[in-house]
Design a protein that fits this description.
The chain is mainly alpha-helical and 173 residues long. Helix content is 76%, strand content 0%. The protein has a domain of 112 residues: Serine Threonine Protein Phosphatase 5, Tetratricopeptide repeat (Alpha Horseshoe), CATH 1.25.40. The protein has nine helices and no strands.
Length: 173
């Protein structure tokens, strides 16, 4: 009888461990959904698959946060969310990538995606500027850095004024 609490505790600990079979089946499900979305080439053609991918990839990252695929699925989810015009969710997911997985190879890209969505999709120049500047301070040597500097230089400017500026520069060159 005195072993009963130890056995109960061991069972509780083991039940809290991630289920390897569940992990594999979730990976397979996500891969199938990803292929479905890639074959459509436009997530708006199959919004059900896009929504299902978003749900499942977020659930995967929550259930298996230490799995090497968790940040990848979150990043892909941010792209899918942007594709179906769920910009708030896309920003949230991209932010989750660089905050929770700073060593992930696409963490800088995720921060850039946040800024870009604020800039091009939402027209929110204040947040776009904040994230572009954060990107430059966090990743000054990243290949996107020169592009980010250019984006900052035209952020919030009237398109007509930009066209006139470019035409003027072309005449001077």
């Amino acid at each position: 009888m005195r072993y009963w609490p130890i056995i109960l505790l061991a069972g509780l600990i083991l039940s809290c461990q991630p289920n390897p079979a569940g992990l594999q089946s979730q990976k397979e499900e996500l891969e199938a959904l990803e292929l479905q979305l890639l074959s459509a080439q436009d997530v708006n053609i199959n919004p059900e698959a896009a929504t299902l991918f978003l749900e499942k990839s977020q659930a995967f990252a929550e259930a298996f946060p230490k799995d090497s695929l968790a940040p990848s699925y979150l990043f892909k989810s941010a792209e899918v969310a942007r594709g179906i015009r769920e910009f708030g969710l896309a920003i949230q997911l991209a932010g989750q990538v660089w905050r929770q997985y700073p060593d992930y190879e696409k963490a800088p890209d995720a921060m850039f995606v946040q800024a870009f969505i604020y800039d091009t999709d939402l027209g929110d120049t204040l947040n776009a500027r904040n994230y572009y500047e954060k990107f430059l301070s966090s990743y000054p040597k990243h290949p996107f850095a020169p592009n980010v500097n250019q984006l900052l230089s035209v952020l919030g400017k009237d398109p007509e004024a930009l066209i006139q500026q470019f035409e003027k520069q072309a005449k001077e060159d």
